[in-house]
TrEMBL record:
CDD domains: PRTases_typeI (cd06223). It comes from Nocardioides szechwanensis. The keyword Transcription regulation does not apply. Residues 6-149 form the Phosphoribosyltransferase domain. This is Phosphoribosyltransferase domain-containing protein. Keywords: Glycosyltransferase, Transferase. GO terms for molecular function: glycosyltransferase activity. InterPro entries: PRTase-like, PRTase_dom. The keyword Zinc does not apply. Signal peptide: none annotated.
Length: 158
């Protein structure tokens, strides 16, 4: 399984954003805020913000994956986190790149639960074993995903 790869290009990412936005609109959901999970969900959150005409964007940083198929025991929400008062009564769309284990989405959904009117999740990819079933999914896969923003090593001085 580790050798199989799902390759997402920047062009496909653009299609995914528009397709997910259309799913949200077709469902009649009108989020007041898009909450992106950093780092992987930042691009999706920005794209959905433009595609849905939502200017109220926020981010939460959750650390879980430390490498290819290696992760911490549990996800950790890193500061700063949005103040609960900033989310009060909002309809929130939580954006992330992938629902793999679903633990990252779960911690963010649970963080929002007591403060928002409603929260739904949008992801580019969903894996069959995730503990959270996002409301909006572009594609399903069992493979490791090479995202265009993380498939190359960080830029360094030569």
């Amino acid at each position: 399984m580790a050798d199989e790869r799902e390759i997402l290009t920047y062009e496909q990412f653009g299609v995914a954003v528009r397709d997910l936005a259309q799913m949200v609109v077709d469902d009649g959901y009108e989020p007041d805020l898009i909450l992106s999970i950093a780092r992987g969900g930042l691009g999706l959150g920005m794209g959905l913000g433009y595609a849905l005409g939502v200017k109220n964007l926020s981010a939460v940083n959750v650390e879980f994956y430390t490498g290819v198929e290696t992760r911490l025991d549990v996800p950790i929400m890193l500061p700063p986190t949005p103040a609960a008062v900033d989310l009060s009564g909002f309809k929130v769309l939580i954006a992330d790149d992938v629902a793999d284990t679903g633990k990252t989405l779960e911690i963010v959904r649970d963080f929002c639960a007591d403060h928002v009117a409603e929260a739904r999740e949008a992801v580019i990819y969903e894996k069959p074993w995730t503990v959270v079933r996002p409301a909006y999914v572009w594609r399903h896969t069992e493979a490791w995903i090479d995202f265009p923003w993380s498939s190359l090593p960080p830029v360094s001085r030569s």
